[in-house]
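stage 2 :: seqdesign
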């Protein structure tokens, strides 16, 4: 019997001795319990959580409705494999997601366990439906760590190094970002250049896009870009696939981030916030695309587990009843207002951006966009941890602070966390480090 451990350092030593080095840890602490927007480690220290398990617990840690749903399901059955013996919660969840997904057309859905699995299956659907093989994605994109989702991912370190060769016929175009000097015209022109120089349009099955790039730096796609992307796909018979794995389930102030633009994708991939901490992902989209293959073409042993389906239905109840889309928008306004005020004091804050609660701060030396400052972002993360705040960074240069609070965070806790960020940046500036 393993003796109880109450020391982060001892647990971390055991972790290094037994867990592969390729599994990272953003913070050297171990959770003992969590509630809503707070986590307590094994030493009893409290942390404000601005990470939400990478935008997973949108409804907060251990939301009572989600916990109750899982506890109620567990004694009934925990697994049958839906493809062997079906259960109503899977059907009810599919019905509900089809109603929520944008667009007036008939829709169907199915479930997997991870976001990467959802992406892999969306690729299969696009290829099967169109009879084409090529896929276009974007520089800076993140779609997962399995081989096809990794091939779509537009960032080498730390994800792709040493794992090639990757599956073929994956092409990357520029993603628009005003602060990085890439306009909507530039991004569309880069796709047109691919179609002229690298792959004919008649071979492209789909374009995969994050309506807000996640790992790429929390960069919202301009609505004009998404509209022009939709038109380009329609022109050439390509499918438009929206990767809403991080942006979905109220994270951006709407159930789906694509709703901000009015653009309706052919397929949507979901995960993260859908399960409230239980592993579940989804592909939802046009019924004619979803129904193109015979039974057995899709599925997985654990996909859409009864526990996860119960949790997801409870999550959707909470999103609706607690009006988390509106609350996400208000959280985002508070975040960006505070960060804009900080930017007036500190030139190192070169950009503040976001959609709903999905908000980012990008650091540059002296505000010069050609001089990214990952050391400032990393110093902020490390010092905030000491003061009881959990943060994460992202971006192609690692110089972006991304904020992913639970959408249920009390506003006094939100302000407490923002005060820590402000005090750390003030102190770094006083030390000449920002």
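stage 2 :: out
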């Amino acid at each position: 019997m393993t003796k109880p451990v109450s020391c982060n350092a001892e647990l971390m030593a055991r972790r290094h001795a037994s867990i592969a080095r390729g599994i990272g840890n953003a913070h050297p602490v171990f959770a003992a319990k969590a509630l809503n927007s707070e986590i307590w480690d094994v030493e009893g220290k409290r942390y404000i959580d601005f990470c939400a398990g990478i935008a997973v617990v949108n409804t907060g840690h251990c939301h009572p409705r989600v916990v109750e749903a899982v506890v109620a399901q567990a004694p009934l059955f925990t697994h049958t494999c839906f493809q062997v013996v079906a259960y109503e919660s899977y059907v009810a969840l599919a019905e509900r997601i089809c109603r929520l997904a944008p667009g007036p057309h008939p829709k169907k859905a199915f479930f997997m366990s991870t976001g990467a699995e959802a992406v892999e299956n969306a690729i299969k659907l696009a290829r099967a439906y169109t009879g084409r093989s090529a896929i276009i994605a974007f520089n800076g994109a993140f779609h997962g760590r399995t081989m096809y989702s990794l091939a779509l991912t537009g960032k080498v370190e730390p994800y792709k190094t040493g794992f090639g060769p990757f599956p073929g016929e994956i092409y990357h175009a520029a993603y628009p970002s005003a602060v990085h000097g890439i306009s909507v015209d530039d991004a569309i022109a880069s796709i047109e250049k691919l179609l002229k120089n690298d792959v004919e349009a008649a071979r492209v099955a789909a374009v995969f896009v994050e309506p807000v790039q996640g790992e790429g730096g929390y960069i919202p796609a301009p609505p004009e870009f998404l509209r022009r992307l939709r038109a380009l796909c329609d022109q050439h018979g390509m499918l438009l696939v929206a990767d809403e794995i991080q942006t979905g389930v109220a994270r951006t102030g709407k159930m789906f981030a694509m709703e901000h633009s009015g653009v309706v994708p052919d397929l949507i991939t979901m995960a993260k916030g859908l399960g409230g901490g239980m592993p579940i992902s989804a592909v939802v989209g046009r019924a004619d695309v979803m129904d193109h293959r015979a039974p057995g073409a899709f599925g997985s042993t654990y996909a859409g587990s009864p526990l996860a389906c119960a949790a997801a239905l409870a999550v959707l109840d909470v999103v609706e009843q607690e009006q988390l889309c509106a609350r996400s928008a208000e959280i985002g306004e508070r975040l960006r207002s505070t960060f804009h005020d900080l930017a007036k004091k500190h030139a190192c804050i070169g950009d503040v951006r976001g959609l709903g609660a999905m908000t980012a701060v990008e650091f540059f030396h002296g505000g010069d966009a050609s001089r990214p400052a990952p050391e400032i972002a990393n110093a902020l993360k490390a010092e905030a941890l000491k003061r009881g705040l959990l943060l994460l960074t992202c971006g192609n240069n690692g110089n972006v602070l991304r904020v992913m609070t639970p959408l249920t965070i009390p506003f006094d806790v939100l302000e407490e966390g923002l005060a820590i960020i402000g005090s750390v940046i003030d102190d770094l500036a006083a030390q000449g480090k920002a």
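stage 3 :: structure notes
- The mean pLDDT is 97.
- The CA atoms of residues 96 and 399 lie 38 Å apart.
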